[in-house]
Amino acid sequence: MTLSRREFVALMAAGPALRLQSAAPYDLVVRGGTVFDGSGAEGRVADIAIRRGRIAAVAAGLRSRGVEEIDAKGLAVGPGFIDIHSHADGTLFDDPSAESVIRQGVTTAVIGQDGGGRLPGRDGTTTASDLFARFEALPVAVNLATMIGLGAVRRTVVGEANRAATRAEVVRMTRLVEAALAAGACGASAGLEYAPGAFASRAELTALCRPLAARRLPYAPHMRNEDDTLLEAIDESVAIARGAGCPLHLSHLKTGGARNWGKIDAVFERIASARRAGIDTTFDRYPYVAWATGLTNMFPIWSQDGGVEAFLRRLDDPATAARLKGESLEKVELVGGWHAVQISNVDAESDQDAEGKRLDDWARARRLDPYDAALVLLRNNRTNVSIVVFAMSEDNLERFLAHPKGMVCSDGGSFAESGPARVGHPHPRGLGTFPRVLGRYVRERKALTLGQAIHKMSGMPAARLRLAGRGTIAVGAAADLVVFDPERVADRATFDSPFQYPVGIPTVIVNGAVALRNGERVGKGTGKGLRPNVRRRS
User: Fold this and answer.
1) Mean pLDDT, to the nearest integer, of 216-235?
2) pLDDT in tens, 178-208
3) How many domains are contained in the chain?
4) CATH of the domain at 24
């Protein structure tokens, strides 16, 4: 660019800040990092230039400067991580800063999981567009994509009853699914271990998943069972996807209970068989050997027919109490006893001392039998009791993470070390999942390479949900980036002390704006609602 004498004098008089902006075509340049593009390839040293929220250049030794520059020499740079199974929306209206999400390097959270979520809303009319507008108005710190929860759809149309949906109800539910997808939902989730989703038949679920087929978006079930009848549950999921003609994505795949750990080879063979049959099948998993659920999940699903009041009545009804106790204790035996159950969250002030305690230890302190203590918690909190259950295999976990069709998810919420998002005593996955994979399972255990892990956290989930321009470092892609130290990155949150942020992630960029700089939160929320890039097939 050649300046006239008048332009040159004006530029000099404007001062160094304006001179830098005038000379710099880029808003931000990340310099000298080892860039992993999200494809699964290993990294290469390059600079990344950003302009107006998009990646404008990726090359070694870029000569043009940025208004702001970040030195990434000796560090890894990846696409911002995509949490394909997240419950981050649980606290975002109270705390849109999404501290524990951003600090893990996550720039997109996929909500609406396990058949629940905020769609279609209590009145049945909330759309994905409505939801995104509410979050963006906060403004929220991370991008959000959402599934439509088939359990929430059933609750809206059928209610809490354990009965077959009528033909008219199935038609109405299908229309709600179609409307959600048309407004930008990225798939359909199901929670088949939870009421009322568990009351849906295979035929009903197949009908509700048919709108997914034309868009090539996935059915993502929390299956009916993840332990003794796990293989049968996978078979049902495959049959639903086959009947609907849609892709299948199995949520938080696991082998629950020691007596089921040996089923992992059969699990992988069923996935391979489904893919050979033309069913596009994938799954996700978090890097921990404990899951989180509600205490009611330790009780049979038939007992939850009709909702909370009906369940609580059955606990005391002589006609059902003994059967309920027997079946509940069978579930407890499966996971290894009451000491395998940690209480993570309660509502009642009288039970706050239970949070973080193993259920048998809390029962002993209250001088109660553990089963009776569980009933006290359920009654006092009107069933709203969250638990963590330790019943999975570390060896199987590594195999799930390394499997070529597996992705990384947190299945966790958004938390903070202080403020309104410091809630209960949560599973540490909400604060540590992604750095734990990078630190423990890449660097220490070498279960997968760094390029593979980043792919499972970025390019792979973006492709699965058809989020164009996300999960990749390429010219024209959205400027969602994470900068981390491969030699230092690690989780710090534990089951005993969950409210601890990870280390080794100094910089996170969301839509071209720095959200984490030198490990400190900066800027305002720049998250957006993300819709899949789909063209309906006839």
Assistant:
1) 98
2) 999 999 999 999 999 999 999 999 999 999 9
3) 2
4) 2.30.40.10
End-of-domain residue from the set 390, 412, 440: 390
Nearest-CA neighbor of 172 among 196, 187, 153, 147? Answer: 153
454-468 pLDDT, tens per residue?
999 999 999 999 999
Question: Could you say which DSSP state residue 262 is in?
Answer: G
Rounded CA-CA distance 137/209 in Å is 31
7, pLDDT greater than 60: no
Question: Residue 12 has what pLDDT?
Answer: 43
- Bridge partner list, 35: 44, 77
Name the E strands within 52-154.
Answer: 54-59, 66-71, 76-79, 81-83, 106-111, 143-146, 148-149
pLDDT at 536: 65
State yes or no: pLDDT of 498 exceeds 90. yes
Lookup: tokens for 33: 């990092």
Position 165 in a domain? no
Residue 374 inside a domain? The answer is yes
299 contacts: CB under 8 Å, gap ≥ 6:
311, 324, 327, 328, 331
- Would residue 317 count as lying in a domain? yes
> Containing domain of residue 46, as a range?
5-76
Averaged pLDDT of the chain: 94
The pLDDT confidence band at residue 403, using thresholds 50, 70 and 90, is very high
For 199-217, the three-class secondary structure string (H helix, E strand, C coil) is: HCCHHHHHHHHHHHHCCCC
pLDDT-derived band at 16, boundaries 50, 70, 90: very low
| Placement of tokens 């999921």 in the chain | 237
Sign of CA dihedral 215, 220, 223, 224: negative
Is 120 within the bounds of a domain? no
**Cα–Cα distance measured from residue 273 to residue 277, given in angstroms and rounded to the nearest whole number:** 6
Q: In whole angstroms, give the CA distance from residue 527 to residue 513.
A: 10
Helices 16-23 and 5-14 sit at what angle, rounded to 10 degrees?
120
Q: Domain end: 390, 416, 438, which one?
A: 390
Structure tokens belonging to residue 235: 């078979």
